[in-house]
């Protein structure tokens, strides 16, 4: 029997004494052969990323190995010291990180960052390093690679940044590639491209891949074998087909059941009353490349028009850069439009200013993508919810009582009003964000990717909450998402945006059953699907 490229046996990593459990991972075992892709799957806190850090020798000082073994190509990884790890990283094991904008150096050109791997290991002359970086950029499919190598990270798209990260990881031709949630922040078409690229590179180079994800749609697209982690322990493992179609453990079945379907859910019909009307909305940006470069004009929103009725959720979907979030910011008047009209609850937000704008903003509130970043870490959540009503003249004691009632409405203990944001989970923080948005009794909620940062089971809970609140309160929502599965479950109608324009706007059931625009068909084709037997 051929020895596996990577062997992890009984790995146990201890957490600090003040943690809520003893071990980050306990008695974890798996192996990866050459040319094999293994997916580590689980929710936040399951131990996936800690395993990745251990494989790269990047564990935080507070987390320490207390048992087990890790071997890669016969080398005992747990026995390596700092100098030995430097010779392993990049050459034998390389990593693709989740967020390329954070992982890349913002003040270095892309080409210099790829070539830096050769310099660190004393390989090639300087001129050869740049040529090799150009070869890698071409291999990972970067368009106009010579231009992109001269660009800085902020000057290229998210998908291009992730391709650059892959080129950096491949620079020293490692035997094992560790990919930690590399497609989580990407839209469906870019995600499909990156998954296809990793699969092609893995087959071409006969690499072993440890791919970390919480998305079973990604598992179906890329995995040969799967290991499911729950609270640091392996609860299920097997081939991708076995785990996806015949899950044995209740935790695995629960994760699969929580995945939203592409079949649109049935919703109650919206009322005739129009709550929000957007007509001819336009916003352009101009940027110059360099001091004397050409001026580039981008139409972030181009003649955007739609209406939202009482009790209706209108979804705004599209790839990154399509203009979705720009439209959201225009509707809440965080941005000023170049032209067009925005009416919410009868108030014209597009021309309001000063006190009139502050008063009109009470009619539209926002739920943000990152619930932790959008809450003040120094304020108790009761006050965070009550701040809006207090600013509008509500007595503090009354506003705090209403905040506690809102916490109960969104499924949290009213006594939690005295706690701080860091004391809650991600899903609980998003419930707090929803309560805060409801505090001013708005006519319209604008939800900008409100579940994209959440695990699939928590995502389902928040979507169920929004649907319940919509039914009970007859809420109207503008729901921004790049996830078509989520849009199918929450939206009554869907507007598809591309390059600042709405190219298709139809009832969700009609759009999913028979998309009319080629771009809509492209988005649907790129959306990952699970085998029917899972459902």
From TrEMBL:
UniProt-recorded Gene Ontology molecular function terms: ATP binding; ATP hydrolysis activity
InterPro entries for this protein: AAA+_ATPase, ABC_transp_ATP-bind, ABC_transporter-like_ATP-bd, ABC_transporter-like_CS, Oligopep_ABC_C, P-loop_NTPase
Signal peptide feature range: none
GO biological process, one term: peptide transport
Domain ABC transporter per the UniProt entry, residue ranges: 6-256, 276-524
Alphabetical list of SUPFAM superfamilies matching this protein: P-loop containing nucleoside triphosphate hydrolases
GO cellular component, one term: plasma membrane
Stretches assigned to coiled coil: none
Key word Nucleotide-binding present: yes
Keyword line: ATP-binding, Nucleotide-binding, Transport
Protein location: Cell inner membrane
SMART domains: AAA
Membrane protein topology class: Peripheral membrane protein
Primary location recorded for the protein, binned into one broad class: membrane
Keyword ATP-binding: yes
PANTHER family: D,D-DIPEPTIDE TRANSPORT ATP-BINDING PROTEIN DDPF-RELATED (PTHR43776:SF7), TRANSPORT ATP-BINDING PROTEIN (PTHR43776)
Family designation: Belongs to the ABC transporter superfamily.
Identification of the protein by name: ABC transporter ATP-binding protein
Naturally occurring in which organism (per UniProt): Alsobacter sp. KACC 23698
């Amino acid at each position: 029997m051929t020895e596996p490229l990577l062997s992890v046996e009984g790995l146990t990593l201890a957490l600090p004494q003040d943690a809520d459990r003893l071990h980050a991972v306990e008695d974890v075992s798996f192996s990866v052969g050459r040319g094999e892709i293994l997916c580590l799957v689980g929710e936040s806190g399951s131990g996936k990323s800690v395993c990745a850090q251990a494989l790269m020798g990047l564990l935080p000082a507070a987390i320490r190995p207390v048992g087990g073994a890790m071997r890669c190509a016969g080398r005992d990884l747990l026995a390596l010291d700092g100098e030995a790890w430097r010779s392993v990283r990049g050459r034998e094991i390389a990593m693709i990180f989740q967020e390329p904008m954070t992982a890349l150096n913002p003040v270095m050109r892309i080409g210099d960052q790829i070539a830096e791997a050769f310099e660190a290991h004393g390989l090639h002359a300087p001129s050869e390093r740049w040529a090799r970086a150009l070869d890698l950029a071409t291999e990972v499919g970067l368009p106009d690679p010579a231009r992109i190598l001269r660009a800085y990270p902020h000057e290229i798209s998210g998908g291009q940044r992730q391709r650059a990260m892959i080129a950096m990881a491949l620079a020293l031709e490692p035997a094992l590639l560790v990919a930690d949630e590399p497609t989580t922040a990407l839209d469906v078409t870019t995600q499909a491209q990156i998954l296809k690229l990793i699969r092609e590179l893995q087959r071409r180079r006969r690499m072993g891949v440890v791919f970390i994800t919480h998305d079973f749609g990604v598992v179906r697209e890329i995995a040969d074998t799967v290991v499911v982690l729950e609270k640091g322990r392996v609860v299920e493992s097997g081939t991708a087909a076995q785990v996806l179609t015949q899950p044995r453990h209740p935790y695995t079945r629960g994760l699969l059941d929580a995945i939203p379907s592409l079949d649109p859910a049935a919703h109650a019909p919206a009322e005739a009353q129009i709550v929000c009307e957007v007509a001819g909305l336009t916003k352009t940006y101009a940027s110059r490349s360099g001091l004397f470069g050409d001026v580039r004009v981008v139409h972030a929103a181009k003649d955007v028009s739609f209406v939202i009725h009482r009790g209706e959720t209108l979804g705004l979907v599209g790839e990154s850069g399509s203009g979705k979030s720009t439209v959201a910011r225009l509707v809440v008047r965080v941005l000023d439009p170049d032209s067009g009209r925005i009416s919410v609850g009868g108030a014209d937000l597009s021309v309001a200013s000063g006190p009139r704008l502050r008063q009109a903003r009470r009619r539209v509130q926002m739920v943000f993508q990152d619930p932790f970043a959008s809450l003040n870490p120094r304020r108790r959540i009761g006050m965070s919810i009550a701040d809006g009503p207090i600013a509008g003249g509500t007595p503090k004691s009354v506003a705090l009582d209403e905040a506690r009632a809102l916490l109960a409405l969104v499924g949290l203990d009213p006594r939690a009003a005295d706690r701080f944001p860091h004391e809650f989970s991600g899903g609980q923080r998003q419930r707090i964000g929803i309560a805060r948005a409801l505090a001013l009794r708005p006519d319209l909620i604008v939800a900008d990717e409100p579940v994209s940062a959440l695990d699939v089971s928590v995502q389902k809970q928040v979507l169920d909450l929004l649907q319940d609140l919509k039914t009970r309160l007859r809420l109207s929502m503008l729901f921004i998402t790049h996830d078509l599965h989520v849009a199918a479950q929450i939206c009554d109608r869907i507007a598809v945006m591309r390059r600042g324009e709405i190219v298709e706007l139809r009832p969700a059931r009609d759009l999913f059953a028979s998309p009319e625009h080629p771009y809509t068909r492209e988005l649907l084709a790129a959306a990952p699907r699970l085998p029917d037997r899972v459902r």
